[in-house]
Write a structure and sequence with these properties.
75% helix, 3 helices, mainly alpha
Length: 102
C-alpha cells in the first residue's frame, strides 16, 4: 500500500485562487458601477454592481441550458439561443439597477 503525500501548499493555493477570484470579480464590477453611476446617478451602489456581475453569468448559463433542453430539439440555431440567454443577462442588469429597457 503506497502512502500518498499531499503537497504542503494545497491550502495556500486554494486561498490564493479564492483571493484572486474575488479581486478579479471586484475589478470587473468597476466598469459596471461606473456605467450605473452614469445612468442612475447616486442611486447606484458598488454592491449592486457586484451582485449584477455575479448573477449575470449565472442566469445566462442557466437560461442557456434550459433553452437548449426545451428548444434544442426543434432545431433552433445556437445564435438564437445565445441571443435569448443574453436578453436574460441584460434583464439581470435592468433589475439590479431598476432601469428601463431603453
Amino acid at each position: 500500500m503506497a502512502l500518498v503525500i499531499l503537497p504542503a501548499f494545497d491550502l495556500f493555493y486554494i486561498l490564493l485562487v479564492l483571493i484572486i477570484s474575488v479581486l478579479v470579480w471586484m475589478i470587473v464590477s468597476i466598469p459596471v458601477y461606473i456605467a450605473a453611476k452614469i445612468i442612475k446617478g447616486d442611486k447606484a451602489t458598488f454592491s449592486q454592481a457586484m451582485l449584477a456581475t455575479l448573477l449575470g453569468p449565472i442566469v445566462f448559463t442557466f437560461v442557456r441550458i434550459v433553452v437548449i433542453l426545451f428548444l434544442g430539439f426543434l432545431g433552433v440555431s445556437q445564435s438564437a439561443l445565445l441571443a435569448f440567454a443574453f436578453v436574460f443577462w441584460l434583464w439581470v442588469y435592468k433589475a439590479s439597477f431598476d432601469t428601463g429597457w431603453l
